[in-house]
């Protein structure tokens, strides 16, 4: 088994009307990698409660294994209250001291780490020391897996130490334009440039020089993405979207970028274009894990199948 691994929060996104959708950035990422055709597992922890049992059942219903989802006897399954404004932008209220804060490193995860093709992790699940230790062990730079950090800041659960350690452990980093603007303060850089474009360029240059990153991807919401990488640089505009909400769109973009780049079938510019269209399709549904046909995305991106 050489899977892609997502590690971190697995939870229920709860909407104002009471509807629940399985979520959490690492889970959304893992779901989309699986949907795009690559074997993927989610590493997380749920409570020994009805919500946890329902979440396991939902993971299996979505076609994924729950083998690496631990059960916590002392902490409840995670939940997030989601509200979406008129522009489709979500606001999250994240429950604290929940099961996914206590992902525990064990021999099972050690064997998984040795076999993984790639591991994707973020900063939110590192807010507590237990999960932080498990994540750092799984993304140890001595392993052969590609290590993808999707920074995914969720305030107030962002610390300088976690951001620095995460960037130091990663080969790839994905962040949005707002997060990029915050990086210099979090990693104690002084950026001399004054204009927004110059600050962006200088921050990307510092990321390249100070951390072992082979790819830096900055997403710009509806305005596309910029990628700086060892395979070349890409700057693409946004794609048309019939917007419902943006929950999970960034996770879907990361998944598509990774899976398609691992396939090594196309130039990075085409990979990124497909990833933008895939994330755009996610925005046309409510929740972060809609069923999407890859062939439809390819037709939208290129007018043909890949």
From TrEMBL:
Family under the similarity heading: Belongs to the carbohydrate kinase PfkB family.
Residues in Carbohydrate kinase PfkB domain copies: 18-288
Example GO molecular function: kinase activity
Pfam families in the cross-refs: PfkB
PANTHER family found in the cross-reference section: CARBOHYDRATE KINASE PFKB DOMAIN-CONTAINING PROTEIN, HEXOKINASE FAMILY MEMBER
Matches recorded under SUPFAM superfamilies: Ribokinase-like
Kinase among keywords: yes
Keyword terms of this UniProt record: Kinase, Transferase
Name of the protein in its database record: Fructokinase
């Amino acid at each position: 088994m050489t899977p892609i691994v997502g590690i971190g929060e697995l939870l229920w996104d709860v909407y104002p009307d009471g509807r629940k959708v399985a979520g959490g950035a690492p889970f959304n990422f893992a779901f989309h990698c699986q949907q795009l055709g690559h074997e993927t597992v989610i590493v997380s922890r749920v409570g020994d409660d009805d919500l946890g049992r329902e979440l396991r059942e939902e993971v299996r219903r979505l076609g994924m294994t729950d083998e690496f989802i631990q059960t916590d006897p002392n902490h409840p399954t995670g939940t997030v209250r989601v509200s979406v404004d008129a522009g489709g932008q979500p606001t999250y209220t994240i429950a604290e001291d929940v099961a996914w804060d206590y992902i525990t490193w064990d021999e099972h995860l050690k064997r998984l780490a040795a076999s993984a093709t790639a591991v994707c992790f973020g900063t939110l699940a590192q807010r507590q020391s237990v999960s932080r230790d498990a994540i750092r062990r799984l993304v140890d730079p001595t392993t052969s897996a590609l290590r993808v950090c999707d920074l995914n800041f969720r305030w107030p659960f962002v610390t300088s130490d976690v951001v620095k350690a995460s960037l130091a452990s990663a080969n790839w980093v994905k962040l949005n334009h707002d997060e990029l603007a915050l990086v210099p303060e979090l990693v104690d850089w002084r950026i001399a440039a004054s204009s927004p474009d110059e600050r962006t360029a200088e921050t990307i240059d510092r990321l390249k020089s100070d951390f072992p990153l082979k790819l830096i991807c900055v997403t710009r919401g509806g305005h596309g993405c910029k990628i700086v990488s060892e395979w070349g640089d890409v700057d693409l505009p946004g794609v048309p979207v019939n917007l419902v909400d943006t929950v999970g769109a960034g996770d879907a973009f990361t998944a598509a970028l990774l899976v398609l780049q691992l396939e090594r079938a196309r130039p990075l510019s085409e990979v990124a274009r497909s990833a933008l269209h895939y994330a755009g399709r996610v925005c046309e549904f409510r929740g972060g894990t809609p069923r999407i046909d890859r062939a439809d995305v390819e037709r939208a991106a290129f007018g043909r199948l890949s």
